Amino acid sequence: MDINEEIDKGLSKYRNINTQKNIEVNLTELSKFLVDAKKATYASNANPIKNQERIGFKELVYENGLWSYRDSYVGFYYFSGTEVVKYDGNIVWNMSYAGGMNPAINSTMYDKKARTTFRFLRKALSLVTEDRPFRGPTVFKDGNLEYLCGELGDIKDFFGVEEVFYKNHDIRIYRLRFLGGLIRPK
Q1: Whose CA is closest to 166, among 104, 113, 111, 97?
Q2: Rounded mean pLDDT of 120-138?
Q3: Mean of the per-residue pLDDT values for the chain?
Q4: What's the rounded mean pLDDT across residues 98-126?
Q5: What pLDDT is attached to residue 12?
Q6: How many Å separate Cα 96 from the centre of its chain?
Q7: Helix, strand or coil for residue 14?
Q8: Is pLDDT above 70 for 8?
């Protein structure tokens, strides 16, 4: 087998990836599904699946009827990832994100602060709503931590930022940027 045959053989599993149907998405159903999926995965501290699609990434999966959700991310202190929603096997919605702990925080307790921040973040993300199914609420406070999230756009096309502050905005300890929307195939 020559090199071209090897390449063709290796790429054959990807040939039918872009056979998307142009389907109409019910935005109310999509919003409700996103809220259910997000609450059942990262916000609930679900365990990543063992057979991930992207090697080296942690992946969280949720399915309900014809809907499926996959959150695939890599990293810990700083991370990036993608959330993909499919309806009847067709990708209909996507959100990409990147962010993490403020690297300027210099402390021997960095790991403990990160774990505390991510525990707090899961609480905030569990409050996701159907009218804003991206991340958490606009404001959430618990003890010395405060979560803020703002975005422009709607479920069809959006971008935004979420941040976690310590002690009344004295120190920003975490920031994440996100963007996404409906997928429109050719």
Answers
A1: 113
A2: 96
A3: 87
A4: 87
A5: 41
A6: 6
A7: helix
A8: no
pLDDT digits (tens, 9 = 90+) for 141-152: 999 999 999 999
The beta-strand segments (E) located in the chain are 58-64, 67-75, 78-87, 90-101, 139-142, 145-154, 157-166, 171-182
DSSP 51: S
Whether the per-residue pLDDT at 51 is higher than 50: the answer is: yes
Residues contacting 49, CB < 8 A, separation 6+: 59, 60, 61
DSSP label at 53? S
Beta strands 78-87; 67-75: pairing state: antiparallel
Q: Which residue has the tokens 């990708």?
A: 91
Q: How many residues in total does the chain contain? A: 186
Residue listed under structure tokens 């935005």:
27
Give residue-wise pLDDT tens across range 89-107.
999 999 999 999 998 876 6
What DSSP state is assigned to residue 62? Answer: E
Neighbours of 74 (CB within 10 A): 13
CB 153 within 8 A of CB 159: yes
Task: Read off φ and ψ for residue 114, nearest 5 degrees.
Answer: -65, -45
Per DSSP, helices labelled H in the chain are 3-11, 27-40, 110-125
In three-state secondary structure terms, 123 is helix
The CA distance from 165 to 148, in Å, is: 8
Using a 10 angstrom Cβ sphere, with 0-12 exposed, 13-18 middle and 19 or more buried, the burial of residue 69 is buried
